[in-house]
Write a structure and sequence with these properties.
This protein is 77% helix and 0% strand. Among the domains are: 26-99, Serine Threonine Protein Phosphatase 5, Tetratricopeptide repeat (Alpha Horseshoe); 110-180, Tetratricopeptide repeat domain (Serine Threonine Protein Phosphatase 5, Tetratricopeptide repeat); 306-387, no CATH class. It is elongated and about 90 Å long. It has 387 residues and is mostly helical. It contains 19 helices and no strands.
Length: 387
Amino acid sequence: MMKRITPLFLLLVFCAPQQQVKKEVKPKEKKVTEAKKNYDIAFDYYKMRQYPKVIEKCRLAIKDSTTFVDAYILMGKSYEKLRNYPKAETTYLRAIKAIPNNVKPYVALGVLYRKWKRYRDAENIIRKGIAVDSTSADLWDAYGNLKEDMKDVKSAIIFYEKAHKLDPKNLGIVFRLGRAYLRDEKPEKAIVLLEKVKIDHPDDIEVLKLLGEAYIDAKKYDKAKEQFEHILTIAPRHVSSHVYLAEIYTKKKQYSLAEQEYLKALEIEPDNTTTYFYFISMLIFDRKDTKKARTYLEKAKALGKDLEMFLCLEGDLYSQEGFQALKKGIDKDDYNLLTAAINKFSKAISIYDKVIKTGKEQRWIKYAQKGKERAINFKKQAEEARW
């Protein structure tokens, strides 16, 4: 899930000392005005990704106004962009010291520590921020993010719910809470939440998409279909909606319709390897059409990327062919079919081994390990049946 950075406020209102008669600007007001000018320039540099210049201008802004919280935050974020986490940490700590009753630096530092995987420090600073202002939705939202990273989804939900109650119109919080409900296998709660939000945002693609996912998890496929079809009326080239529709048709065992949706997605993005992965997986495991799966697997491999993923699918393909031969061989007590099954499983094992030994992505290495384990077990069954 995408973690969102707490928004920066572009304008800051400063309370200048009252003057009884003279209208000229006092020196302190001049400094504040200069600080604001430097901050505005810094923000423009930030949009242009010129982070060293951002830091320079923010430093000037803070020099003129030591309580200019947004300048501290922008400087810290720039250090983060430059991967200089220690400097970012120092900046946020300075802000907390200078403006201890403003929660923005607590949020920023908590997010930094989470990104840095310093979870205990993140929890401590977020708790300190909550002690300052327990009505800050951003702090509870950051706490939820932290708990998700710590694999404590139930606590994350509690904190997201607090954040949502404090700021119910914040769509970022809605998405994170909805996603957490789905991770906790509570799609009905996600549906209730998102249907309410949908009333005010009937054409928001992200709302519709997450709601569609929730309906899929709740096995309410027709309702899910409605969400993704509505997205396609708004954005006809929305690839993931076609992929989700294909998933819905697959679950309903309407494989021809599922194939049509995958092909529509590939027509829009011919080099989308994720679409190929789901399409070929459907052909292998659900439709069990290994011939067609091999055809599209060759097309996918020809793209020249995500080869570990497609090697795993090739292992799956040989395993499926082996399993089909094993089943027929046992039913017919056919020596040749059982031998063919053994050969197919052996080929699958060698492909999985290649991923395990040379792969670079842990998710595909783990995928291959599980595939190899299954292929070995089926191969033993084939060998025992042949004897």
